[in-house]
Amino acid sequence: MGNIGNYILKRFPLGIFARHVVTMMTGSVFAGGIGIIVMPLLTRIYRPEDFGIFTLYTSLLGVLTVVACWRYELAIVLPERDEDAANLLLLCIVICLGMGLLTLILAAIFRASLANLLNAPELASWLWFLPLSLIAAGVYLLLNYWSTRRKHFKRLAIRQMTQSSVTAVTQIAGGGLCPTVSAGGLIGGAIVGQVTASGWLAWQIKKDEGMFISNAINRSDFMRVVRRYKKFPLFDSWSGLLNTFSGMLPALLLGYYFSPDIVGFYALGYLILHAPMSVVGSSIAQAFFPHANEAKRNGQLSQLTLKIFEHLLIIGLVPILLLTIVAPELFALIFGDRWFTAGEYVRWLSVWLLFVFISSPLSNIYSIKEKQKEGLIVNIVMFCSRLIVLVIGGMKGDALFTIKLFGITGAVLWIFNCIYIQHLADVSAIKIFLIIVKQSMYGIPYALLPVATYFVTQSSLTFVLSGIGVGVIFFIVQLRRMKDICVSA
To answer: Model-level pTM greater than 0.85?
Structure first.
């Protein structure tokens, strides 16, 4: 992967922003590729209900991780002085350890009740490991933003590769060597991967910058940054918590109203749909934050934001259209017939996750413009809307109807969020609309080809293969356009 990254950097005359994206994408491609490659094996080792329990665990962890450092980690990128950032780093470490201790106390008291509430009694014994997972995830967050500030993206790429490799090996070994371990193999593998990767990143930063960080920390600066960036715990922590919890609501409420196997279908569909997009989206988000902060100071934030929006739409629209069309047959072919339902779920989640993919990197605008209060209001609306539609679907007793309602509502809310973020960056809605129309017209012919193939052949296999073939053609076309995009970035 390092050789591939170096080849791209030599092949294309990239701007500095694009270079940082490519560096991060190298790690993301490796991490995402490992996850996708091992998934057909994992789906044959573990049952849908095992994936359901694993998803419930990671959902709880995801909600807690948002407040692991009370969102002070986001502020690490913002100060002009590295000394202030170092004091924020220490503050985040103290908060993270305290949150780990609090989580241990809560797990000791409520783990059995929570597991029973989610219709997953097996989960209870694994909640003892939640504090360890939270500390590992929190340490990664704060060190991630420190490395982002220092623009050490290669370090972060290596960390991604480490976590994905260790996690995959451990999960396969856990399920293969001990079949009775069930969901514990997935959970244990994730814990080992997270702890190993976060530990490596901490060691690397201590080796390279430990002396500077130690010398920069003092009481007066520490207390000053606590007060200066108090909006992050007061507003952004709640905003991030609601945003994350909104994303976790389907797994939690599907488990409450239905069963772990329904959660497993949703989890696999979400993972396969989200993982490839996150390879690009997370890389751009990582590089966008510091560059957007500089663009704000230089009066160029609107141009950068609109450019990133258009590039993300170009990358994501056609693959999402193709996956939406062939998803059920594709899932049955790759993962086995029992996963056909997961493909049906993907069809209704696709538009929502497309705009999550586009908006997530740009959501750093809330922090850069210090509009945490506005971000909190948006996330309150999202949370309440999703909660209502999931409860309605759950009370109706129809899992597919619930997914449909959730997907449509999520798409509407994230389209609104995307437009509002652009507004904060002084980008007009008309420009956004014109870009969406233009790219939609460009993508429709790609989507029509597999549909036409199915009507001619009436073969599911040919239908899926035609969709994959069109996707390859799209990828080749985008590679040819990559040079111009990278130069402009």
So the answer is: no
Determine the 3-state secondary structure of 152 from DSSP.
coil
Percent of all residues in the chain with a pLDDT value above 90, rounded to a whole number? 36
- The domain segmentation of the chain, as residue ranges, is 46-229, 233-489
SS (H, E, C) 225-257: HHHHCCHHHHHHHHHHHHHHHHHHHHHHHHHHH
Return the structure tokens found at 195: 């702890």
Rounded to 10 degrees, the C-alpha dihedral 79/84/85/86 comes to: 170
The DSSP output letter for 81 is S
Region 333-338: what's the mean pLDDT? Answer: 84
CA geometry: angle 185, 187, 190, nearest 5 deg: 105
How many angstroms separate the CA atoms of 391 and 223, rounded? 44
Q: Is 37 exposed, middle or buried (0-12, 13-18, 19+ CB in 10 A)?
A: exposed
pLDDT in tens, 95-106: 999 999 999 999
The pLDDT tens digits for 159-190 are 889 999 999 999 998 876 666 667 888 999 99
Question: Are 165 and 151 contacting, i.e. CB atoms less than 8 angstroms apart?
Answer: no
